[in-house]
Amino acid sequence: MRRSMVKFMKIKTIFLLLFCILIGLLISIQSRMITGSFLYISPKVLQDYETSIKTEKMEMEQIKSLIIEKQNKLNEYTGYEESDNILSAMNQELKRLKLISGFMDIKGEGVIVLLDDGTRDLYQGENPNDILVHDIDLLTIINDLKVAGAEAISINGQRLISNTEINCSGHSVRINNQFFAQPFIIKAIGNPKTLESALSAPGTYGEFLREYGLILNVNKSINIHISKYSEGKDYKFLKTVEEGEMI
């Protein structure tokens, strides 16, 4: 009886020892997990991350839109069974691009504007340049026509496009590397009433030029012809970006 009791006590001690070792291991593991290193992230960094994520999402949406656009264009071309139809569609697209870029002769209703130097007598001590047409006058008139919805504009036969320059050079004005003297004939295609109002209504720059003594006549027309841009364009610095290439 005593031997069995001693044996039982030894087994109990062994189990108790193993239990204590197990508890120690668990406490050690838990301690390491709790005392592990933490990385502090400031609110500024979190905000930068959010901004970056939003930017990436916007770029993804733009790419998706571009894919849909190109897929529609591809479907448009592949939907034709005969090569002649494909060529016809491509020619129509080429005409559309020439039309919006200014490389095609066009016609339509709009206004014809005559802008010339003033002929009134000078006031005592007045500078003669005050009643002459300057580049700023042409630029302001052109800008007013664009705001009024002009779809195409020319000055003395020179078609205005995105890189057209208008600046004074002595007693003449340079337009598309061509030099012109007064008078200036401006043709603009668009809604005739709206374009006329943009230059003739009270408070407009056109009305200001008239009151100051310059000659500005605006006539509506239902049949205006504007020639295409005739000068060459030489791009030295810009390069095309391939689809999918990061900007």
Q: Summary?
A:
The chain has helices spanning 2-34, 43-78, 83-101, 135-147, 192-200, 205-212, and strands at 106-116, 152-155, 158-159, 166-169, 172-175, 178-180, 184-189, 215-226. By secondary structure, it is an alpha+beta fold. The chain has 2 domains: 43-101; 108-226, Protein of unknown function DUF881 (Alpha-Beta Plaits, 2-Layer Sandwich).
Strand order of the largest sheet: 3-2-7-1-8
Structure summary, number of beta strands: 8
CATH topology of the largest domain: Alpha-Beta Plaits
Strand content: 15-25%
| Basic shape | elongated
CATH class of the largest domain, anyone?
Answer: Alpha Beta
Largest sheet: 5 strands, antiparallel
Which structural category do the helix and sheet elements fall into?
Answer: alpha+beta
CATH architecture of the largest domain: 2-Layer Sandwich
Whole-number radius of gyration? 39 Å
Share of helix, binned = 40-55%
Mean pLDDT: 82
* Number of spatially distinct domains: 2
How many DSSP helices?
6
User: Low-confidence spans: pLDDT under 50, at least 5 residues?
Assistant: none
Order of helices and strands: HHHEHEEEEEEHHE
Write the CATH homologous superfamily of the largest domain.
Protein of unknown function DUF881
Distance between the termini: 90 Å
